Amino acid sequence: MKLEKLEKKDIEKKLFIVNKAKKSYAKKLGTNAIEIKNLIVDFGESIAVNNVSWAIKKGELVTLLGPSGCGKTTTLNAIAGLLTPTSGQIFFNGKDVTKLSPQERNLGLVFQNYALYPHMNVYKNIAFPLINDKDWKKSIFKKNKINKLENEIVKYKRSGKISNKEIEILRAKFFDMYDVERETKTYLNNLLIEWNSGVDKINSELNSAKPTKDLRLSTFAKKILLDLLKIKNKRKEFIKLNKENKSEKKYINQIQNFKNQIKDLNKKYDEGRKLIFDQEKKKIQNIKDRLKKAKLEKKESNFVKKIKKAKERFYKLPKIAKFDFLNYQKSLVEKLPKEIKLTKEDLKIIQENKKKIIKVKVAIHKEVMAVAEKVGIVKNLKKKPTKLSGGQQQRVAIARAIVRKPKVLLMDEPLSNLDAKLRIATREWIKSIQKELGITTIFVTHDQEEAMAISDKVVLMDFGNVQQIGTPMDLYEKPTNEFVAKFLGMPEMKTFDGKINENGELTYNSKLIGKSKKLKNKDVIFGSRAEHLRELSKDGFLAKIIHLDFLGRETLATLKHENEKQFKMFLTKKKIYKIGEKIYFGFPKDSVYIFDKKTKERVGVI
What we know:
Number of strands: 21
């Protein structure tokens, strides 16, 4: 189809898409930078991420914190697009990116092992993302075209033949070309995501059905095997104890009884295995039938027509917008006189715009030098990564991640390979550079001290579940459960078994700890942090010092109190303590956390 033959209604369609684009942009201004809704990552044998939902505002540094295996790296990989979630959605600035590739998400990645190219020098390592980024190159071409257009507009204004209104219309039509291309693509992608959403969910069920079947069969087989081993061990022990009675009827009957038990177990295994196999086969067939039905329903729905129409718009409307711009520009050029006298000011503006028109290679050099200066590695640009220290390599990795100016920066345990002193210096630097650039950042670590020092917000996870979300101070001072209270803080909080009587008094070993306004007649767990426990001269609880750590201005002691497990506490009454020495300790008035004995949830503070 030739552009000259486009109908008027096509132009109207184009304008409709442009207006929609502007409304869409206005809506995005109030959305979260990243939002996760009901994210589930099921590996079959275990659920790595279990129905997680949370949101991040633009420019925040949020840490995913938790012990090994809690699901924090899996969550990060799902956000990055490195793995597809079983179900749930991931949004960037209100846009569903769940099915998009990592390249389409415009993010920077920094890994634990830096992942630098050893055969390239630092300069080439940083430049690599720009060289391979088509969208970034397109943005350079767009800027060049804008500057060329502005030079043309200088001439239009000086000619006196073209009004300001006509110039503004020309500018609007120029930007419409890019708005239309972006929005038609977004509209088509959203339709395809919606089209695949139901089918993908059933496909995920189908993919996890086989591992579930294998797991059920394996678990059942292990149980039967354990029962079988128990019987065989009993038989072995019986034979050992009754060697001299082999001819007796009682002995023969018992041996036969063992044989019958083994036979019954083998029969139970065969029947159970067949039952599980049949159940799972029926389940898989049911999923396949649902998948077939879902695909058929999709084909019969209006979605097919919608997608077809969206594809036509995607290929057609950007061409219409371009034709509309070129046609209008041509009409303005026809109005211009043959000669236009430009003033010195006009020539100065034109010259300034020409300086902004740069080649891609020059733009890459400019960006690399700018980011190298920001992270302080300009002197090392010609060196290979192997010639750098761990801290310098980490700076190169971060420079490479931020050189494209990503909307989101993802960092997976980036400091774990550094020594303690360098870790502290590097985390302070990361915090300052993140604030300077204003990049929304997700930082993964298992180190709670690191998370407390660097984060605007912490997402604390355990066994694939989010335990608490909040500022570091919120999690430290207002833990929602015993896990949060114990995980945050060095050393770990010690908890004790206590009882709250009918008067709301919390007692431990018949001594009053404090009084609760809300709780009565309840068995509870309570605890205080090491820095809150008080050393008393007398009348407290007696404990024995079994280990001492001298930390300069303070002493950290490991104590043992009666039959309780060991716990830690800071001692401040005197300068020198000895192992084996006994001291009295007490609980503070306003820093005793009370947890429900069954649910482990925090139910109060005294």
